[in-house]
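Deliverable D2.4 — example input (structure tokens):
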């Protein structure tokens, strides 16, 4: 009886702590709109992020995010966040993107401050049509092309032969990482992309600096969670992004 009572008291304490944790969550009220007089794509999804943008020398840190199917424009939603992680000395901003057919068609192009420095818990965002969002007919294909690496973690890559990435419609992925060749399976979604291990490959010893380049390519693939494509510079471009939205690798379609 005593043991049962202790278990019951412990369970109640756990439930109470969970309830308190949930009660401590607060919300940002975010209203998103764009000014162009065009209809929303039928598959449009709105992604809102609360970011710590205090540090100029590092990528923004995502504090909270939410992605919902859009039902109209403008659209208002409540973004939950944990106030315990907010430092009044730091700077926080909200960013938004509208996704359609695996690409970003609208995005915020300026910083919208919230929470600290006199900013409040509500914000109105104006999204701009993405320069990198051609019409559906011009949209490059993710699969069936050979993608050639042009930048890694934001740094340009200019080496011959360049690392390449090929994705096939059945999910097969072929990678030339700069020295060795690898093959495996990719998990491809509307705008999500992952390269789960293991990947089979050759095991040649790579001389410097090829060894560092190859390791960087493999790390970028392992970190990838989503992608963006564009044709704004004439050649189809593929950007691989991690779960923080950081650009880990950029490819261009190799000439046929």
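Example output (designed residues):
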């Amino acid at each position: 009886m005593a043991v049962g009572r202790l278990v019951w008291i412990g369970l109640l304490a756990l439930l109470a702590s969970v309830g308190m944790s949930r009660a401590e969550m607060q919300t940002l009220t975010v209203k998103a709109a764009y000014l162009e007089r065009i209809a929303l794509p039928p598959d449009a999804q709105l992604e809102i992020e609360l970011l710590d943008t205090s540090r100029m020398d590092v990528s923004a840190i995502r504090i909270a995010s939410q992605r919902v199917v859009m039902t109209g424009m403008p659209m208002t939603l409540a973004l939950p966040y944990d106030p315990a992680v907010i430092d009044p000395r730091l700077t926080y901003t909200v960013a938004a993107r509208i996704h359609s057919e695996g690409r970003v068609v609208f995005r915020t192009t300026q910083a919208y401050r919230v929470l600290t420095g006199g900013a409040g818990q509500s914000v109105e965002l104006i999204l701009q049509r993405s320069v990198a969002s051609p019409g559906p007919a011009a949209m490059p294909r993710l699969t069936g092309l050979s993608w050639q690496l042009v930048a890694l973690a934001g740094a340009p890559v200019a080496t011959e032969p360049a690392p390449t990435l090929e994705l096939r419609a059945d999910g097969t992925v072929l990678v030339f990482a700069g020295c060795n060749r690898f093959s495996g399976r990719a998990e491809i979604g509307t705008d999500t992309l992952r390269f789960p291990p293991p990947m089979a490959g050759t095991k040649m010893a790579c001389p410097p600096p090829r060894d560092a380049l190859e390791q960087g390519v493999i790390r970028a693939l392992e970190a990838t969670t989503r992608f963006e494509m564009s044709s704004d510079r004439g050649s189809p471009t593929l950007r691989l992004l991690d779960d923080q939205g950081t650009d880990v690798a950029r490819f261009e379609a190799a000439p046929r």
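Helices lie at 2-24, 210-223.
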